[in-house]
Amino acid sequence: MRQAVTTLFAQIELHVQNYYARRGHALSESDVQRLEQFECRTLPAPATVLLARPDAVLPTITHTSKACYTHWKQLTTYLYPFSDTNPSQQRQFELASNHIADLIQSVFSPWQSDLKLGDAERRNCIGLCKTTARLGHLIVSQPAGYAFQWDKSPTVAGEEKGMLVLPSFW
User: Fold this and answer.
1) 60-94 b/e with 16+ CB inside 10 Å = b?
2) In the chain, how long is the greatest CA-to-CA distance?
3) Which of 26, 74, 85, 130 reaches 20 to 30 Å from 4, CA-CA?
4) Which pLDDT score is estimated for 11?
């Protein structure tokens, strides 16, 4: 179980590193409104503040994405049952995965990389949504729980290197 969640979170982190740029962005009113949908109480400051700082962009998108997938995984377990054999459920699963991927892409579009990758980012995001939903079913069927564990990364000469966020099972 722990390995499955850790693997998903590693895939999310790779997705952010591959498709988003480390740059600050002046937020428009619509950017702020979209980001409010993804606001996390576990961030050290509001996402709108952190995403204005180039050094905090990738860690903030990574953490916010992980939290988003976590909530979606929980909702998916109850709202979007999945069966490989039921065509109706399969269509609903596909629509839900596409909807969530589109929402994530629209929220973080100001920070997308300038690389022209075609539809690769969207396909990868949809794949992460599907993996998240299947993991949600697996977790709910097991007697386990988890929470985010925030730690400051090791310091060198008193300077912080950044944040380290890991899933912690109990």
Assistant:
1) bbbbbbbbbbbebbeebbeebebeeeeeeeeebbe
2) 59
3) 85
4) 92
The answer to whether residue 168 scores a pLDDT higher than 80 is no
Rounded distance between C-alpha atoms, residue 134 and residue 153, angstroms:
31
Please name the amino acid found at residue 59: P
Between the alpha carbon of residue 15 and those of residues 47, 86, 142, the distances in Å are: 19, 30, 27
Note the pTM of the prediction, 2 decimals: 0.71
Q: By percentage, how much of the chain surpasses pLDDT 90? A: 2
Q: Please answer whether residues 129 and 122 qualify as being in contact, where contact means their C-beta atoms are separated by less than 8 angstroms.
A: no
pLDDT at residue 156 in the model = 47
What DSSP character marks residue 110?
Answer: G
Residue 149 DSSP symbol: E
Q: What is the Cα–Cα distance from 67 to 70, expressed in whole angstroms?
A: 5
